TrEMBL record, chains A, B:
Keyword check for Protease: yes
Pfam families given in the database record: M20_dimer (PF07687), Peptidase_M20 (PF01546)
A biological-process GO annotation: proteolysis
Coiled coil start-end: none
Alphabetized GO MF terms: metal ion binding; peptidase activity
PANTHER family, alphabetized: BETA-ALA-HIS DIPEPTIDASE, SUCCINYL-DIAMINOPIMELATE DESUCCINYLASE
Protein's name in the database: Peptidase M20 dimerisation domain-containing protein
InterPro entries, per the entry: Cyt/Met_Dipeptidase (IPR051458), Peptidase_M20 (IPR002933), Peptidase_M20_dimer (IPR011650)
Length: 463, 463
């Protein structure tokens, strides 16, 4: 541990340079879901591979049917070996007009006295988070000439589009990816001062449905009153997905979910998360979640269903008296416990088909299906990381559930047989997936310091 | 009447040249609802004014707060005077990918043996229809050196965006627009072989509603399960607009509508319009209209409600796990009888507001409101036109109701005190407002001949 103070001092001194590095990565618009940005995705991957190579990793790009994966190794025989996972792709930026600054021109802003943030698409999710780990590696190597443990870094470019090619890659390269456990930096803190380790993640089923009525768009003056309108059909389906108590109405949807223990309920009650506190930051006051559940339960440990997008007919300026031929929606379900993704995808499709009037058809595109995962909360690695985080932040690191989904955690367990330690420094107000995404400089800086501490801690013997 | 055969022969000989003229007008993308095409709208207006000037009209553009109005006069003291109305603006062209050819590059196609059509945005609605009248004027003047009656031509550029500036223009220029009655060429035939005069038109209320929940787009993994989703709120509202029998549920919506007489029902039954015949052409088999009403009643004489567009959240390629801050819909109602547009607009807004959960707000944009109108079916002018149409087409011209709305007809009655004769040559399969809009060459050619006959007929004495 004696080397740690020097490493931490180096990180403090190097903060501006590390921000410049992050900025140059953020300038590359690596939007994975839009094929127009494929070349940019590759550039973002190359940027990271080159940086890791400069740290003494054997690093390069590995091809997939989609965007390449950055894979880098720095083994240390005899020491523990970790597999770090992150992603270099970012969400689309629309609606662009709601950004105060350009999404791929990072800026540093002081949003309240003493609180600086970096604003850009990917500032938090996940480039900023990935770089907390990379900067910890850099400072450790610079200060000590080595790392205390062996490290493999795998950073993919398709997390925001469902990680469709990652499971096959992990399966085919299981031997090369072998590690004692995985580290992931793509999660959040409890609040701005309290670090957290995420111990459970919701799964996800994402389906796109297109309803077709007539074989073309129609003039509502000629055909209105007789021709089926796909927007009406789709609206009735969406409206039927939740009942008046906020429960999701797909038959069998809640199968495989356990009720929380009394201890769990007591822990939640202690955290005392209020609607004002959680929803107030986004201009809301009332949860629309399941009646009779605590807010924290609704957002962390209960399954959800949200329409993420809907479109049909004329959506431009002014008017058009059209009855659309088609209307579409993107619908996602967050899963918990032992809910089965395939069963729920099938239940959704059946639910839609049962509600189609005569003449009307539905087509589906599956955008991914992954189960919920839970990580053991009593592992030695988790306890070491928890102690290191507590040391850095001066507050006890809590273990939390996350509403988000990181399917790779399930893949690591299933395909590599290893558990994952999820440590991240995102905040609820980071506007992840929204305009004006940001990352607090305190998250970025103390995140680097946290990883430096965790790397040293993981090298120590015993539990 | 002795001059008519020569005029008709001239129209026959001049068909190719008249098609070339129409094509050059169709090439101008005069999309009134999109401000990006404002200069094109003006060009389309100038094109027509110049053409009318070449026919000896005093013609020019008259400015409005929006797009200009083409106004042209050719008086004939002592003879009847008619006010012809049409519009030079066209609908937007999206979805562009569904067009087989470019919307503003007109092409002539043979869609079945012996049946040729011209394909372009505006081919029928309303440039093609307007030019049937203009070509009849041209041939009559060329052959006889004069017109048999006085003619004012008023062609506006905002019909597809609700004719918002037309009523004020008509009111302010009532003296200049004085006429015995109005002619409008913006309606359809009964079928490809049977001409029709439209005797009633539905009115229209067009509202755009935007539902706002959170003050930004949210990550569904962080906020899903608690934050209100505006797409869900909007879907529930749209789903509630119709009941299971196809009736519209706005309170008081059906006030002011009379039931059809037994004679009207018998006339409808005689026309024997079947679902196969009417909906089969667009790939449907079953009407979703009000249970217990004949199909022809549903589409012509009953009020309707259609969502013409809906959008919210992520609508691009792939996935985005977002809960939108806002979602919007464009909703239009077709009105009949004495339904009051303002009352219905207010009822719609109240209907939406009553269905908003806590924290959720709605904003409205009104895109126009006009009542239904009926024209007298026993006027001398109508009988003369009916005889002329019957002569041209070899089938008795029928009087029909139209599901569409042409608010100017109500304006002419209210502001100028004149009735309107609605004669048009559109067909149900013209794909008006849809990709691949077309106009049959038989409509274009025999439409010109029909107007030539009507012009001569209107000059004759008596009933």
């Amino acid at each position: 541990m004696s080397k740690l103070p020097a490493i931490l001092s180096r990180l403090d001194a190097d903060l501006d340079a590390s921000l410049a590095r992050l900025s140059s990565w953020l300038e590359i618009p690596s939007i994975s879901t839009d094929s127009a940005y494929a070349a940019d995705s590759r550039r973002a991957a190359e940027w990271l591979a080159k940086d890791l190579e400069s740290l003494g990793f054997t690093a390069g790009l590995r091809e997939t049917p989609g965007h390449p994966i950055v894979l880098a190794h720095r083994p240390k025989p005899g020491a523990p070996h970790v597999l770090f996972y992150g992603h270099y792709d970012v969400q689309p930026v629309d609606p662009l007009e709601l950004w105060d600054t350009k999404p791929f021109e990072p800026v540093i802003k002081e949003i309240e006295p003493g609180r600086k943030v970096i604003v850009a698409r990917g500032a938090c999710d996940d480039k900023g988070q990935v770089m907390t780990f990379v900067e910890a590696l850099r400072a450790t190597i610079a200060e000590t000439g080595d790392l205390p443990i062996g490290v493999t870094v795998m950073v993919e470019g398709e997390e925001e589009s469902g990680s469709v090619n990652l499971p096959a890659f992990v399966r085919e390269n299981a031997e090369e990816l072998k590690a004692d456990f995985a580290l992931v930096c793509d999660t959040g803190m409890w609040d701005r001062h309290t670090p957290a380790i995420t111990a459970s993640l919701r799964g996800m089923v994402y389906q796109e449905v297109t309803i077709t009525c007539a074989d073309r768009d129609l003039h509502s003056g000629l055909f209105g009153g007789a021709a089926a309108n796909p927007v009406h059909v789709l609206a009735k389906i969406v409206a039927a997905l939740h009942d008046e108590t906020g429960r999701i109405t797909l038959p069998g949807f809640y199968d495989g979910i356990e009720e929380p223990t009394n201890q769990q309920k007591a822990d939640w009650a202690d955290l005392n998360l209020t609607e004002d506190e959680f929803l107030g930051q986004i201009g809301l006051k009332h949860s629309v979640g399941e009646t009779g559940r605590m807010l924290i339960e609704q957002i962390q440990s209960r399954p959800t269903c949200d329409v993420n997008g809907i479109w049909g007919g004329y959506t431009g300026e002014g008017t058009k008296t059209v009855i659309a031929g088609k209307a579409s929606a993107k619908v996602s379900f967050r899963l918990v416990g032992k809910q089965d993704p395939e069963t729920i995808a099938a239940a959704f499709q059946a639910f839609v088909r049962e509600r189609l009037p005569a003449d009307v058809s539905a087509k589906f595109v599956a955008h991914g299906a992954s189960p919920a995962v839970a990580v053991p909360v009593e592992s030695p690695a988790l306890r070491k990381a928890q102690a290191a985080l507590t040391e850095e932040w001066g507050r006890k690191a809590v273990t939390i559930g996350s509403g988000g989904s990181i399917p790779v955690v399930g893949d690591f367990k299933r395909l590599l047989g290893i558990d994952t330690l999820l440590v991240g420094f995102g905040l609820d107000d980071d506007r992840v997936h929204s305009p004006n995404e940001k990352y607090d400089l305190s998250s970025f800086h103390k995140g680097q310091r946290s990883w430096a501490r965790i790397l040293q801690a993981l090298a120590t013997e015993g539990a």
